[in-house]
TrEMBL record:
Cofactors (names): Mg(2+)
Gene3D superfamilies tied to this protein: 6.10.240.10, NAD(P)-binding Rossmann-like Domain
Annotated organism of origin: Mobiluncus mulieris
Entry GO MF terms: isomerase activity; ketol-acid reductoisomerase activity; metal ion binding; NADP binding
Domain KARI N-terminal Rossmann: 2-182
Family the UniProt entry places it in: Belongs to the ketol-acid reductoisomerase family.
Protein name: Ketol-acid reductoisomerase
Enzyme Commission number(s) of this protein: 1.1.1.86
A single GO BP: isoleucine biosynthetic process
GO cellular component, one term: cytosol
Presence of keyword Phosphoprotein: no
Length: 330
């Protein structure tokens, strides 16, 4: 049975009794660090103080040390480094300075799940994934609330890994909303599937295809953009508040009826078959291998795909309309 954990399920004192090294100081790492500090946790930032991010961390009152020194000074390490650089930096500047039973926490499980990064057997290894936009992690915390998240443990060398991870999640505010206990594999694979088949690739292609269908049939590009893209923000808000069924029934009878009859014509059984193929490639590691090979080759395929999509007419139309109404048009 799925465990959903809240504040009473975590002992905040555990993480408060330890020193946390946050490696990196991008938007996500900064939100973690600030929330930890506000929860009474001793935090050190692992980063060169000569970088812009390092200077910002110092300005915000954090002690900043080179990666190796920060890791050596802490017993809990948050790896919030760019995915493509993570393995090299971990192997060269993090792993040599970890002590037995130290806890290493990741914000995404890709490198651990697919074996590109292999923490030593004597370490505790956890995953803490806030579910929401980066700024919400900090904003909701400051407002006295929180956003939900996922937590997992890959290695429990000390017998305390789950308790440390739960305490860490509490310190950044996730247990205020609730965290789901899962595994590295499930969290990583589900996130990749969502990015490729639903919220990322699937939704983007659906929008582009809808836009192209209307424009090719003679509809004004601006009208097409408003109908297939602009309204998504409002629909997403309703979806978050009421779920799929609640969003459907909040619409007019005309929209609800059309959604049922048209949706099954567009999203056919073949779509689900292709989704299963996408998931199989994720589970087998085929997608991970393709991505890493492309990264190692200079991201040639990624750059080609990016170039093919960034010049789509949908983007130029959207840019023009966003200038007309920057606060309301997504």
């Amino acid at each position: 049975m799925t465990q959903i954990l809240f504040a009473d399920d975590a002992d905040l004192g555990i993480i408060q009794s330890r020193r946390v090294a946050v490696l990196g100081y991008g938007a996500l790492a900064a939100a973690h660090a600030l929330n930890l500090r506000d929860s009474g946790v001793k935090v050190i930032i692992g980063l060169s103080s000569t970088t812009r991010a390092g200077a910002k961390a110092q300005e915000q009152g954090f002690e900043v040390q080179p990666l190796a020194a920060a890791v050596a000074a802490a017993s809990v390490v948050l790896v919030a480094l760019p995915l493509s650089r993570q393995v090299h930096i971990y192997d060269s500047e993090v792993a040599p300075h970890l002590a037995p039973h130290d806890t290493v926490i990741f914000t995404e499980g890709f490198n651990v799940r697919y074996g590109y990064l292999r923490p030593a057997v004597g370490l505790d290894v956890g995953l803490v994934c806030p579910q929401g936009r980066v700024h919400e992690l900090r904003d909701e915390f400051v407002a006295g609330q929180g956003i939900p998240g996922l937590i997992a443990v890959q290695q429990d060398a000390s017998g305390m890994a789950w308790e440390v991870v739960k305490s860490y999640a509490a310190a950044i505010g996730l247990t205020r909303a609730g965290v789901v206990a899962t595994t590295f594999a499930q969290a990583t694979e589900a996130a990749l599937f969502s990015e490729q088949a639903v919220l990322g690739g699937g939704l983007n292609r659906l929008i582009q295809s809808g836009f192209e269908t209307l424009v090719e049939a003679g509809y004004q590009p601006e009208v097409a953009y408003f109908e297939v893209c602009y309204q998504l923000e409002q629909q997403a808000r309703r979806l978050g508040e009421a779920g799929v069924w609640g969003r459907r029934t909040a619409a007019s009878d005309l929209a609800e009826y059309g959604g049922y009859t048209g949706g099954t014509r567009v999203i056919t059984p073949e779509v689900k078959t292709q989704m299963k193929a996408v998931l199989a490639a994720i589970q087998s590691g085929e997608f991970a291998a393709r991505f890493m090979a492309d990264q190692n080759a200079g991201a040639v395929e990624l750059k080609t795909l990016r170039a093919a999509n960034e010049n789509h007419v949908l983007e130029s139309v959207g840019t023009r309309l966003r200038q007309l109404a920057p606060k309301t048009v997504p």
